């Protein structure tokens, strides 16, 4: 039912609905060249070489980087991580969060503008779009109603989406290749023998890449990304951001190149709106700091080119701080305020945690031992002369070299370790990046000790065979030995 305006005239329901919901206007970013455009190109190439190339690297006759969820092992070059190494994942996540806080405090959403996967794939998809359909105005005309659907329009659209889907498919395939050996995955794909979960995730990530980078684009940065929402509480007046110099640029207005704009009461901004046309999120940087700005610097390159054409100094839009704009100070002066308390605190935490992380990795013992008592048979008498306790010993070799392991028990007199067949254990061979679950019997002579629970310990000594050398690894695990009444 339409509502009534103050004057008594009814308001159409369409107007009411439009006022409640923001209608998305498709953004057609204009291509731009310059220093920051080159940096974006370098980062796109570097990140994609890393992402697409890592799964194909080999290390010790296996994939160099593989997160094998089925076997519950993470291979990162020469490092093999097990579920027991979850502390490393925790430290890595904490370090990533602190690094994000530090980068934001220093330079805002710099990660978003240059290395975020959403930004990187949007750049790739927009590059394809420009190559197929043309630059900004050609794409606007192509999508307009004045260009009817015909053979050429269908050909351009199909070509663009075919290339988008090709990259999206290869991206999804590569992503799964981090969790399934990529050569095995490729062979299964060629022979059409992918498993149901592999097929699902391949389709899911391909569709997500195609949809996010091809259609949603800035909507992900503006509405879906949580980083955009909480970055405003991490920046201050000394954070370097893409900033429009209002003191120098206002009041803006068009003018002839030869005109004295100072005598006309105009600032340096010629109001060409090219800074808006090149923005991938479609914002006007001249309106001040906005959470939608991803800090890509495209508007800086565009504005510098315009300033060069009209013979004005560059830097009307630049990376600087709010304090520097207010004080009309240089960037050299603004850099002096970088080392402020929050930056120093973040840096100190990152340094301490990163040092602990690296030291722990370097000194990590690849020999892991877990001792579990058999709760079904706590203790029993054997042949009237010995008391026997049953244990299950899990030996894990977290290195990529074979180990020869010896186990001894100590803590009580005359302790002997036997295997499930009743024979004394001499040496156990544990293969690279593998584990063995060994049921053992530990016995002591009856009458040596009174009944009760006695603490004992297992001394595990392993020889890690690295080429012609043998590195000794040791572990001591505590347990209890029960002597019944």
UniProtKB/TrEMBL annotation:
A Pfam family this chain is assigned to: Fer4_5
Domain called 4Fe-4S ferredoxin-type: residue spans: 260-288
UniProt cross-references to InterPro entries, sorted A to Z: 4Fe4S_Fe-S-bd, 4Fe4S_Fe_S_CS, Cyt_c_oxidase_cbb3_FixG, Electron_Trans/Redox, FixG_C, Helical_ferredxn, Ig-like_fold
Membrane spanning stretches: 35-54, 74-103, 162-182, 188-208, 343-363
GO cellular component: plasma membrane
Source organism superkingdom: Bacteria
Keywords annotated in UniProt: 4Fe-4S, Electron transport, Iron, Iron-sulfur, Membrane, Metal-binding, Transmembrane, Transmembrane helix, Transport
GO molecular function list: 4 iron, 4 sulfur cluster binding; metal ion binding
Protein name listed in UniProt: Cytochrome c oxidase accessory protein CcoG
Organism: Polynucleobacter hirudinilacicola
Phylogenetic classification of the source organism: Bacteria, Pseudomonadati, Pseudomonadota, Betaproteobacteria, Burkholderiales
């Amino acid at each position: 039912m339409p509502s009534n305006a103050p004057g008594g005239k009814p308001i159409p329901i369409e107007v009411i609905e439009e006022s409640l919901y923001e209608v998305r206007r498709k953004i057609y970013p204009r291509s731009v060249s310059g220093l920051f455009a080159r940096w974006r190109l370098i980062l796109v190439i570097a990140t994609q070489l890393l992402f697409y190339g890592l799964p194909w690297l080999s290390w010790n006759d296996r994939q160099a980087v593989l997160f094998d969820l089925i076997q519950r092992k993470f291979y990162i070059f020469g490092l093999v991580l097990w579920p027991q190494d979850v502390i490393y994942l925790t430290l890595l996540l904490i370090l990533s969060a602190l690094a994000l806080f530090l980068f934001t405090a220093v330079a805002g959403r710099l990660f978003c503008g240059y290395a975020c996967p959403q930004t990187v794939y949007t750049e790739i998809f927009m590059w394809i779009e420009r190559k197929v359909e043309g630059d900004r105005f050609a794409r606007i005309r192509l999508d307009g109603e004045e260009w009817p659907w015909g053979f050429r329009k269908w050909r351009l659209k199909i070509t663009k989406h075919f290339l988008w889907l090709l990259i999206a498919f290869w991206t999804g395939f590569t992503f799964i290749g981090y969790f399934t050996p990529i050569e095995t995955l490729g062979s299964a794909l060629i022979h059409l023998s992918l498993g149901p979960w592999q097929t699902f995730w391949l389709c899911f990530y391909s569709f997500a890449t195609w949809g996010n980078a091809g259609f949603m684009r800035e909507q992900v940065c503006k509405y879906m990304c949580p980083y955009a929402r909480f970055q405003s509480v991490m920046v201050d007046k000394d954070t370097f951001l893409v900033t429009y110099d209002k003191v120098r640029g206002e009041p803006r207005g068009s003018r002839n190149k030869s005109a004295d704009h100072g005598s006309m009461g105009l600032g340096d901004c010629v109001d060409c709106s090219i800074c808006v046309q090149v923005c991938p999120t479609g914002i006007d940087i001249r309106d001040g700091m906005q959470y939608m700005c991803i800090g890509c610097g495209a508007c800086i390159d565009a504005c510098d080119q315009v300033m060069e054409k009209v013979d004005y100094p560059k830097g009307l839009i630049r990376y600087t701080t709010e304090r520097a704009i207010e004080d009309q100070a240089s960037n050299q002066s603004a850099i002096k305020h970088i080392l402020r308390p929050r930056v120093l605190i973040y840096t100190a935490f990152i340094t301490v945690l990163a040092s602990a992380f690296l030291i722990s990795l370097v000194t990590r013992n690849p020999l892991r031992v877990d001792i579990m008592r058999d709760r079904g048979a706590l203790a029993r008498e054997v042949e009237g002369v010995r008391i026997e306790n049953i244990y299950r010993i899990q030996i894990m070799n977290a290195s990529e070299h074979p180990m020869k392991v010896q186990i001894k028990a100590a803590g009580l007199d005359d302790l002997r370790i036997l295997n499930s067949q009743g024979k004394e254990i001499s040496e156990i061979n544990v293969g690279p990046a593998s584990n063995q679950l060994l049921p053992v019997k530990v016995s002591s002579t009856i009458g040596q000790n009174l009944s009760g629970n006695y603490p004992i310990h297992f001394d595990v000594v392993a020889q890690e065979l690295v080429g012609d050398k043998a590195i000794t690894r040791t572990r001591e695990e505590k347990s209890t030995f029960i002597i019944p009444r």
